[in-house]
Amino acid sequence: MATELISLGILFFCAIIGGVIAARFRQPAVFGLLLVGALIGPNSLNLVQDVDMIRMMADFGSILLLFIIGLEFDVSKLMKLGARSILIGFLKFAIVLFFGYETTLLLGFSSKVALFVGVILSFSSTVVVVKVLEQKEMFNRKEVPLLIAVLIIEDIIAVLVLTFFSGAKGAGNSLLSTFEHITFSVAILIFVYLITMKLLRYVVNAIMKNNSDDSVLIFLSLGIGALFSYFASYLGLTPSAGAFLAGSLIASLPNSKEYGKAIRPYAMIFTSIFFISMGTLVDFKSVESNAALITALLFTILISRFIAVGFLTFLLANFKNEQPFFSSIAMISVGEFSLLVAKESEKFGLGIDLVTISAAIIFISAIIMSIGINYSERLHNSINSRFPIKAKIKLERISGYMRKFFDQMDIENFFTNRLRSESKTALMLVIVSLLTFFILRKFAFFIKLNFHPTILYSFYTLSSILIIWFIHIVYKRLKIIHHTLAVVLTNVDSSKNLKKCTRIISNLLTALFLLFSAMLFPFAMFALNLNVWTNAIPFGLMMAAFYCIKNLVALIDDRQQTVSYSASLSAAKF
Question: What is the pTM of this model?
Answer without folding.
Answer: 0.85
